Amino acid sequence: MKVDKQEIQIPNAVREIYPFESRWMDVQGYRMHYLDEGERSGAPTVVLLHGNPTWSFLYREVIPLIRSCRAVAPDYLGMGLSDKPADERFYTLENHTRVITEFIERLGIRNIILVVQDWGGPIGLGYAQAHPGNVAGILIMNTWAWPDPSDFHDAVAPWRMLHAPFAGANFFLRQNVLVERGLYLATFRSRHRLKGGPVLEGYRLPFPSVESRIAMLAFPRNIPRRDGDLNWERMRQMEKGLSRLTLPCSLLWGEKDIVFPPSNAHRFQKLIPDCSAPRMIHDGAHFIQEDAPEEIAEEILKLCARTGQRSN
Known about the structure:
Elements: E1 3-4, H1 12-15, E2 23-27, E3 30-38, E4 45-49, E5 70-74, E6 84-85, H2 93-107, E7 112-117, H3 120-130, E8 135-141, H4 152-155, H5 157-161, H6 167-174, H7 177-185, H8 197-204, H9 214-221, H10 232-241, E9 249-254, H11 262-271, E10 279-281, H12 288-291, H13 293-307
Parallel strand pairs: 4-5, 4-7, 7-8, 8-9, 9-10
Antiparallel strand pairs: 1-6, 2-3, 3-5
């Protein structure tokens, strides 16, 4: 399979706000990029999962605030600085979950704290349901885990259009609309930073060409809209499995998210037995890592203290 292996040099302006050591692992025959920061001796391991069109850069302001824990932040294959297979069929929810599973197993981390948002939700919760003994707790933010993600996905015409083979491809691949416009519209408190400058440059960095954006297009095409669609049954089973998760669960939500509104947070609270009431960020939106990194770090540290794990 053709792979985009373009070496990406991080500009100084981006490196100043993303000052972490890049690490690499071979997964499924591809090179996967990740960060591994913080305290390793006796500390819990926090696995930070991103969504679309983001990468480990999304957690750059959270990681320094949780240095008493070990923080691991991978870039999915097709995203960030990881290899980018050119075949859209590679980028299924099932395969993303398989990749993360192999990544966690090869890294040898145990009793992890999962932090999930956007596509990190279905990917991370898929892992947690399949490996409940290896997850000590989970922080869920602005995501979903059921067949009907939200009214947004049926009401917004451009989102429906993404399932069209040509119009959707042009919208995403050539115009790079999720990075150029989506990030700005999906933040609130920090929106001014996504008009330009090093933050926007950091998000643009891994996706300089049409070929590098295939995974960005595949993600929305993996969202089912009706029974029989790709992932409908998988998401139905995932929703049913939430009631069997017995791990401590915290919820933090950007109230101004139009993609996954606060009603999603309350749905998680009802479905997961040991789930706290959601902590709502009034001036936060979909990419809550940009809007509320301090609040996220607080919730992570609470989970680490609550689980009391010291085996990593």
